[in-house]
From TrEMBL:
<dbReference type="GO" id="GO:0031434">
    <property type="term" value="F:mitogen-activated protein kinase kinase binding"/>
</dbReference>
<protein>
    <submittedName>
        <fullName>Tribbles pseudokinase 3</fullName>
    </submittedName>
</protein>
<dbReference type="GO" id="GO:0032869">
    <property type="term" value="P:cellular response to insulin stimulus"/>
</dbReference>
<dbReference type="GO" id="GO:0045717">
    <property type="term" value="P:negative regulation of fatty acid biosynthetic process"/>
</dbReference>
<dbReference type="GO" id="GO:0070059">
    <property type="term" value="P:intrinsic apoptotic signaling pathway in response to endoplasmic reticulum stress"/>
</dbReference>
<feature type="region of interest" description="Disordered">
    <location>
        <begin position="16"/>
        <end position="39"/>
    </location>
</feature>
<dbReference type="GO" id="GO:0004672">
    <property type="term" value="F:protein kinase activity"/>
</dbReference>
<dbReference type="GO" id="GO:1990757">
    <property type="term" value="F:ubiquitin ligase activator activity"/>
</dbReference>
<dbReference type="GO" id="GO:0005654">
    <property type="term" value="C:nucleoplasm"/>
</dbReference>
<dbReference type="InterPro" id="IPR024104">
    <property type="entry name" value="Tribbles/Ser_Thr_kinase_40"/>
</dbReference>
<keyword id="KW-0649">Protein kinase inhibitor</keyword>
<dbReference type="GO" id="GO:0045599">
    <property type="term" value="P:negative regulation of fat cell differentiation"/>
</dbReference>
<dbReference type="GO" id="GO:0000122">
    <property type="term" value="P:negative regulation of transcription by RNA polymerase II"/>
</dbReference>
<comment type="similarity">
    <text>Belongs to the protein kinase superfamily. CAMK Ser/Thr protein kinase family. Tribbles subfamily.</text>
</comment>
<dbReference type="InterPro" id="IPR000719">
    <property type="entry name" value="Prot_kinase_dom"/>
</dbReference>
<dbReference type="InterPro" id="IPR011009">
    <property type="entry name" value="Kinase-like_dom_sf"/>
</dbReference>
<dbReference type="GO" id="GO:0043409">
    <property type="term" value="P:negative regulation of MAPK cascade"/>
</dbReference>
């Protein structure tokens, strides 16, 4: 159906600038502060500056109405909005997609049954140029939570990481490869910050059969697997997702990425070597699980379903001196840097954008 986009007056305290999606072409992305990722062609950079919303110099007391919803402040450079239903006053998150790319973007949702750790589509409204997809609302994201806490206690990390692994396993079971997994993809849906959902599937790939081979280079540099950087042909999409989960777990427990460098070429070199260090303060079971995920050879990594059977998750992250089952060989060790993100890392992650 054709959507009539209306700008409606609201009370003056909101003072929001009108947002005209249907008549305004997409603005050109801003020039990134950080260098593009030259060494790997086609790899989507994540360290790009967000497009800032225009300053409300013109104090226009109108906001955009999409069907029964009112869109409020923009996020992610105007591709995501906080939305409120006019009649129920319930809050939602609205993602805006070009109409031409909508069928491919929404396809993975049609193959997934509902899952408590995957955000559900509440409603879809189609306009002349854009499609507006409304999701259940989420609170803060895991990236901000870990950065604020520096690193998480093992019991807390185990409870949250299990939910992440559950979401990934559910997607893999239904032939959906996520491709761009990272901490920021997971949102809290409760005030206690204990329940997580995978925010959306907009970067996901839907498999046509049991073969999970992919050839495109897609992902955030800090989370990308070595086979994606080194392979000239195809790679296992599921194994690449598991590597990203390993980076997620390491960062939650240690407070920094397992591989990091200010220069993309050096970062990729470290990831290709697969050499990382684990601080001695972590329990043997936690260290074991990290190594089982960050194995350089994709076929040697655990699957998403196998992650859920690991002793560290079975014990709820309880500290123990017992050795875990099936530990991998020791990885090479580098000098351990302080277990926090540097200020520069924080600034770069603040500017993260997947679709620059």
């Amino acid at each position: 159906m054709s959507l009539n986009v209306q700008a409606i007056p609201v009370a003056s305290p909101l003072r929001k600038k009108r947002l005209d999606f249907e008549d305004t072409p997409d603005s050109e992305p801003s020039k990134p502060k950080h260098p593009r990722l030259g060494p790997v062609s086609g790899l989507t950079p994540c360290l790009q500056p967000l497009v800032r919303s225009p300053c409300a110099v013109e104090q226009d007391s109108r906001v955009l109405q999409i069907g029964p919803y009112i869109l409020l402040e923009p996020r992610e450079g105007g591709r995501c909005y906080r939305a409120v239903h006019r009649h129920t006053e319930a809050e939602y998150s609205c993602k805006v997609y070009p109409a031409r790319s909508y069928p491919e973007t929404i396809a993975p949702y049609g193959h997934l049954s509902p899952h408590p750790n995957v955000a559900q589509v509440a409603e879809v409204i189609q306009g002349d140029q854009n499609v507006y997809v409304f999701f259940q609302p989420g609170g803060g994201d895991m990236h901000s939570h870990v950065r604020r806490c520096k690193r998480l206690p093992e019991r807390e990390a185990a409870g949250l990481f299990r939910q992440m692994a559950e979401a990934v396993a559910h997607c893999h079971d239904h032939g959906v490869i996520l491709r761009d997994l990272k901490l920021r993809k997971f949102l809290f849906v409760d005030r206690e910050s204990t329940k997580l959902v995978l925010e959306n599937l907009e970067d996901a790939c839907l498999l046509s059969g049991p073969d999970d081979s992919l050839s495109d280079k897609h992902g955030c540099p800090a989370y990308v697997g070595p086979e994606i950087l080194s392979s000239k042909n195809s790679y296992s999409g599921k194994a690449a997702d598991v590597w990203s989960l390993g980076v997620v777990l390491y960062t939650m427990l240690v407070g920094r990425y397992p591989f990091q460098d200010t220069e993309p070429a050096m970062l990729f070199s470290k990831i290709r070597r697969g050499v990382f260090s684990i601080p001695d303060g972590l329990s043997p079971k936690a260290r074991c699980l990290i190594r089982c995920l960050l194995r350089k050879t994709p076929a040697e990594r655990l699957t998403a379903r196998e992650i859920l059977l690991h002793p560290w998750l079975a014990s709820g992250g309880a500290a123990s001196e017992d050795s875990c089952t099936n530990p991998s060989g020791e990885q090479g060790m580098e000098q351990v840097v302080p277990d926090t993100w540097s200020q520069k890392d924080e600034e770069e992650e603040e500017e993260e954008d997947l679709h620059s």
